């Protein structure tokens, strides 16, 4: 059996590390060809020794020493060379595990080259999902999402006609502030927000989980990935995080995807699709489940989710501005420049000043992204 040749962009983050664990568990199925990271030099050294990639991309400042220490590896500038690297004929699957808007160009290059793409990055699909999906249709690229919620929807919809779809139920744990009254949100600290009740994640995604902006991004992501109207995507707070998402059909039937909370499950599914392989994890014990509870999100308490729905309905460059302004606002909160509730305020004010481009090309999206970052930064500086 021919091994699948894998590129992992963001190999030193949590998704990248878990993807490598999946690969290590099936050495007869997978071969690592490319690893890309930013600044985690010690970890990338360890990954080079263990997985022997042909190519490694890192921030340029680290390249001279890495080249000296690993003479059998070809090194590249991660900021400049990723689009060309992921387009290589000796790469079959590209895992997009890097965060932020920087993932857009390599994601688009991989899709245009007809690769199977396994994205864990929300930003690229939020910014330019329509462009990415159209490029995939033209090239025959298969996009199998890695995020647990999008993977669940993908699995529930597999082989089914989307014309029979009534509604997607996108589940959310509720984040760090689910049980905290809205009147106290002004008082929460960065430490409070980063103490997620269920998972240890990066700072940006943990803050977005607390505002529910992360779930808003997933609404836009699902809209693009599955070609459905935003009004057919419903967010449900599900604190147990056992059901990763559900799909309801026009006859009233609901299909749900359940499983233990472990990112190796959706990662392995994306790498092996359309096959499934055994996974040596603790199984979900249905007998031990005491309850599966659901509640509607409070949009007054979490206005960022409402803002994301509005941007999704507006479409065009509005989601790009939403994403860029949120990145600036979250960074300002993490640095202590604004209060937690200021995140929503900065994003809302940036969106209110934006002149939407209804059918943007890639240049329009890049311009809107840059404009939104500058405008959001100006707003932060005025209020801080």
Helix segment tally = 15
The CATH superfamily of the largest domain bears the name NAD(P)-binding Rossmann-like Domain
Low-confidence stretches: none
- Straight-line distance between termini: 59 Å
Indicate the CATH class of the largest domain.
Alpha Beta
CATH topology of the largest domain: Rossmann fold
Note the main sheet.
Answer: 7 strands, parallel
How would you describe this protein?
By secondary structure, the chain is of the alpha/beta class. It has three domains: 4-143, Rossmann fold, CATH 3.40.50; 148-260 and 282-302, no CATH class; 316-384, RNA polymerase sigma factor, region 2, helix turn helix motif (Rna Polymerase Sigma Factor, Chain: A, Orthogonal Bundle). It has helices spanning 14-25, 41-51, 63-69, 78-86, 104-112, 123-139, 148-157, 190-194, 203-211, 213-226, 264-272, 303-314, 318-334, 340-352, 362-383, and strands at 4-9, 30-36, 55-58, 74-77, 93-96, 116-119, 142-143, 165-172, 233-237, 243-249, 254-258. The chain has a seven-stranded parallel β-sheet, sandwiched between helices. α5 runs parallel beside α6, α9 packs across α13 and α13 (318-334) packs antiparallel against α14. The protein is globular.
Question: Which helices and strands, and how do they pair?
Answer:
Blueprint (H helix, E strand, L loop, with lengths): L3 E6 L4 H12 L4 E7 L4 H11 L3 E4 L4 H7 L4 E4 H9 L6 E4 L7 H9 L3 E4 L3 H17 L2 E2 L4 H10 L7 E8 L17 H5 L8 H9 L1 H14 L6 E5 L5 E7 L4 E5 L5 H9 L30 H12 L3 H17 L5 H13 L9 H22 L1
Parallel strand pairs: 1-2, 1-5, 2-3, 3-4, 5-6, 6-7, 8-9
Antiparallel strand pairs: 8-10, 10-11
Helix pairs in contact: 4-5, 5-6, 6-10, 6-13, 7-10, 9-13, 10-12, 13-14, 13-15, 14-15
């Amino acid at each position: 059996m021919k091994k699948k040749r894998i590129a992992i962009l963001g190999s030193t983050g949590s998704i990248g590390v878990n993807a490598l664990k999946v690969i290590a568990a099936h050495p007869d199925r997978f071969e690592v060809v490319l690893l890309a990271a930013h600044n985690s030099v010690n970890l990338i050294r360890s990954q080079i020794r263990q997985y022997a990639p042909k190519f490694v991309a890192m921030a340029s400042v680290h390249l001279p020493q890495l080249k000296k220490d690993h003479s059998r590896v070809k090194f590249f500038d991660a900021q400049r060379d990723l689009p060309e690297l992921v387009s290589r004929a000796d790469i079959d699957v590209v895992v997009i595990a890097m965060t932020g808007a920087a993932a857009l160009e390599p994601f688009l290059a991989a899709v245009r080259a007809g690769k199977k793409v396994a994205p864990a990055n929300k930003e690229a699909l939020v910014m330019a999902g329509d462009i990415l999906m159209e490029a995939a249709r033209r090239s025959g690229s298969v996009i199998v999402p890695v995020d647990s919620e999008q993977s669940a929807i993908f699995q529930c919809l597999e082989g089914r006609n989307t014309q029979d779809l009534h509604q997607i139920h996108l589940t959310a744990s509720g984040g760090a502030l689910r049980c905290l009254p809205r009147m106290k949100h002004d008082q929460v600290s960065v430490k409070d927000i980063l103490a997620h009740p269920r998972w240890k994640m990066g700072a940006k995604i943990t803050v977005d989980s607390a505002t529910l902006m992360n779930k808003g991004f997933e609404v836009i992501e699902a809209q693009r990935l599955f070609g459905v109207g935003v009004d057919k995507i419903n967010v449900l707070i599900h604190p147990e995080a056992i059901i990763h998402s559900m799909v309801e059909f026009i006859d009233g039937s609901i299909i749900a995807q359940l499983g233990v909370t472990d990112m190796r499950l959706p990662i392995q599914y994306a790498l092996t699709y359309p096959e499934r392989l055994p996974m040596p994890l603790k199984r979900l014990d249905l007998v031990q489940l005491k309850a599966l509870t659901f509640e509607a999100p409070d949009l007054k308490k979490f206005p960022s989710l409402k803002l994301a729905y509005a941007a999704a309905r507006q479409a065009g460059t509005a989601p790009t501005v939403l994403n860029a302004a949120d990145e600036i606002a979250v960074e300002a909160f993490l640095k202590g420049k604004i209060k937690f509730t200021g995140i929503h305020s900065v994003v809302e004010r940036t969106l209110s000043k934006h002149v939407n481009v209804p059918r943007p090309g890639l240049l329009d999206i890049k311009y809107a992204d840059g404009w939104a970052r500058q405008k959001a930064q100006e707003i932060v500086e005025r209020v801080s």
